[in-house]
Amino acid sequence: MGLSFKSILWYLSHPCSYGESFRKVWHAIRKRLGKNTNSLEWCRQRAVAIEEVITKVTGQVREIEWIPSYTQSNALILFNFAEYLEATKVVETGVCRGTSSSGILKSISKRNGLLISTDIPMPELYAQPGELVTDDLKPFWKLIQKPDSVALPQAVKELGTIDLATYDSDKSYNGRMFGYEIMWNALRKGGILLSDDINDNYAFRDFCKNKSLEPLIAVNGQRYVGVIVK
User: Is the pLDDT of residue 65 over 60?
Assistant: First the structure.
């Protein structure tokens, strides 16, 4: 996705985000130039339905209380993982309207848990990140509006060992590899790392290969979701 004029103004007014904005622009340029760096075929060969991935990991699919447009997000799979892990400490990068965040929060709120989300606003898409997070869930949620390079270490430091991590922010190869490493190192044994849009590039595949991990891949509409269990 390109950057709108409003987004550019936001980045310019937040110096700590300059590195993130440069990566987004470079990623957009590479896509426009048609560089064959996506892992779409690799994903297609391995992908199964989201419900099948949930069942393989947790043994069953738990129904989620209705959330607006949750079928177009990762809310269902994240809710199920949080329930299975009895998660109380979760890190999320990329919030947008907060549908997936709400799925996590509907689980961890039962155990007085905490979700720390990181995001850089995209003014052309929404006014505030997490606008779908309802007031009853907000006591269990903290939002850090800074680039991953700053926000992720801050989130992990605050939570310590985490139960569940979900990545949906900087889509560049290097951005993903940076985020995966921090999240993976913070995960407890048996914890789960999920990454959205893994068909964009080979970062998820390479991370799994480097760690000798066997991922599960779910298809969600036109997107592919990667899952690894520690």
Answer: yes
